[in-house]
Amino acid sequence: MRFIIHILLCWNGKKRFWRPLDHCALGAIGIGLLGFVLLVRAETTRLRIATYNLRNYLEVDRWVDGSYRPHYPKPEMEKTALRKALIEVGPDILIVQEMGPEPFLLELQRDLRREGLALPHAYLARGSDKERHVALLSKLKPVALETHEDLGFDYFGEIIPVKRGILEAVFQHGKWRWKVYGLHLKSRWTDVEDDPLSARRRRSEVLAIRKRVMQRHEEDGVPYILAGDFNDVRSNSPIRLLQNRGKTQVANMVECWDSRGEVWTYFYAKEETYSRVDYIFLSPDFPAVVEYNHGHVFDAAGSMDGSDHRLVWVDLELGRSAGKDG
Fold it and tell me: What is the distance between the alpha carbons of residues 97 and 314, in angstroms, rounded to a whole number?
């Protein structure tokens, strides 16, 4: 394709006229444009963040092919479907929920690497739930890792912990430093009559998490991402409370949808209901622009074969902010 710029508007003191540019002038313009593009690219970094509830990636009692199997691992067909989705999306940083003990995380890491997706850095958060964990797989090496398992709250007169704690991973790339918090709030299942659907418990978990996140931000000023399975819909208090404390903005929700514009991330087969419970939030000072101004929900063929949740991700242009977007 020829250069789009073929002519130069000139002024001879009396009138304007068009004059073809010579090759040297075209070359200078081309070099200048290329230098500008390279400069912009050098100062920005594309980052893909994903969250995925893997649905019992561990040994658990299950029905497999019509037979009851106690302490049975996740079926290979489901594992294959999970890996297919992850390989197609190719996240740089992945937060997962319902991961079993460390050998299961290392198995997933190994199988992904063998099939073409290398996520060399793995971390398992250990909360009070000893079976299902939040975990991290990442292409980027974290400079700091921590599980906040000391978070507690009053629940009908008893101090209980945030069930899975929160995972905190700090990253540094060039001049940018940021952190990712991985979360998995209490499910809607409950055996407490006074707390139907565990709504009160999830609300208390969010308040404890929000307090810790804001305290850390006051201490270090590092912008953050919150990603995970929140087990609640956006109209309920846990999601609203995570975004604001009074007039103070805590986090901005990234709107996410699939190729058909549908936003649901979880299918509850028992009631045949679809809902959005998996989210990604950014702190107000996060130094990035969300590509296309929205995130994504994986909906390729077989997207529900590995889990009852769908993979959610967002592409960020690190080094740009909404105020500089142009």
Answer: 17
Structure tokens at 150: 């000391």
As a whole number of angstroms, the distance between CA 48 and CA 40 comes to: 19
pLDDT by residue (tens digit) across 10-39? 344 444 444 454 554 545 444 444 443 333
Range of the domain at 12: 7-39
Determine, yes or no, domain membership for 1: no
Q: Which residues of 115-128 are buried (b: 16+ CB within 10 A; e: fewer)?
A: eebebebbbbbbbe
Lowest mean pLDDT among 29-33, 173-177, 242-246, 267-271: 29-33
State the burial class of residue 187 (Cβ atoms within 10 Å of its Cβ: 0-12, 13-18, 19+): middle
CA 203 to chain centre: 21
Cα 25 to Cα 1, 31, 37, 185: the distances in Å are 18, 10, 19, 61
Q: Return the DSSP state at 21.
A: P
What is the side-by-side order of every strand in the sheet holding 166-173? Answer: 144-148, 166-173, 176-184, 224-229, 278-282, 252-253
Q: pLDDT of 39-65, one tens digit each?
A: 334 457 999 999 999 999 999 999 988
Residue 193, Ramachandran bin (φ over 0: left; ψ between -120 and 50: alpha; else beta): alpha
Distance of CA 269 to CAs 66, 151, 272, 275, Å? 17, 32, 5, 11
Kind and range of the H or E element at 110?
helix 102-114
Q: Which residues pair with 290 in a beta bridge?
A: 316
The tally of domains found in the chain comes to 2
Cβ atoms of 167 and 136 within 8 Å: the answer is yes
- CA 321, CA 272: separation in Å to the nearest integer? 40
Query: What is the full DSSP assignment across 26-57?
Result: HHHHHHHHHHHHHHHHHT-EEEEEEEEEEEEE
What is the Cα–Cα distance from 77 to 308, expressed in whole angstroms?
Answer: 14
**Is residue 158 one of the residues assigned to a domain?**
yes
Q: Is residue 2 part of a domain?
A: no
